[in-house]
Amino acid sequence: MNPELLSDTFVDLADTMVADFDVIDFLHMLTDRSVALLAASAAGVVLADPRGELRVAAASSEAAGLIELFQIQNDQGPCLDCFRTGQPVTAADLTRADQRWPRFAATAVQAGFRTVEALPMRLRDQVVGALNLFRATPGPFAAADLRIGQALADVATIGLLQERSLRRTEILAEQLQGALNSRVTIEQAKGKLAERLTINMDDAFRMLRDYARNSNQHLTDVARNFVESATAEFPPPPRSEAR
Hints:
Elements: H1 3-14, H2 23-37, E1 42-48, E2 54-59, H3 62-74, H4 78-85, E3 89-91, H5 102-110, E4 115-123, E5 126-135, H6 143-163, H7 169-197, H8 201-214, H9 219-228
Antiparallel strand pairs: 1-2, 1-5, 3-4, 4-5
Helix pairs in contact: 1-2, 1-6, 2-6, 3-5, 7-8, 7-9, 8-9
């Protein structure tokens, strides 16, 4: 494990009080760093919407995002159990988990994942979602890695809630809903870019994210601009200001 990257990750996760805080980019950073630090093949984050229903908020790869979505759509899988109980859920070998989550286990194995660890994103009794770690090989994650993974999830949860601590609960729910809706726009942009350039969805997302960072724009704004443009050129043209 890279100690410098670990330290930088905790600093970045705690730095949510900036004026241009972007929830979606923040959560993608959480999944990317989880993969880099915890010997995971992929990672995903699910968050509860205002009605308490889980939505996919971020994933380190297209495969992980689809597996997260499959769990939600089929109401079955470790991330749902983790969210409902507020406790970590371990599936050390999904080929042996067919009785607990038969549809999920089969689909996850087919997608190339053999191990899943679901970690709750919670602050005291408030559970807002789950951080899910996937690995291609069977066997439990190391105890030290799970402690760090839970710490990352905890700091991210505190950061999300702290950023909104001065706002009313209704506004918090509205912003979380807005963040989840932003993902739909990002998915549309990924698909449009992937089709236009004949690349895969993961590469399309990396291009969108890199362009947003290099041009100092929000990822959601870049995605929306690209989706709404009459021509599917990339980078997207700048939006004209209303006069």
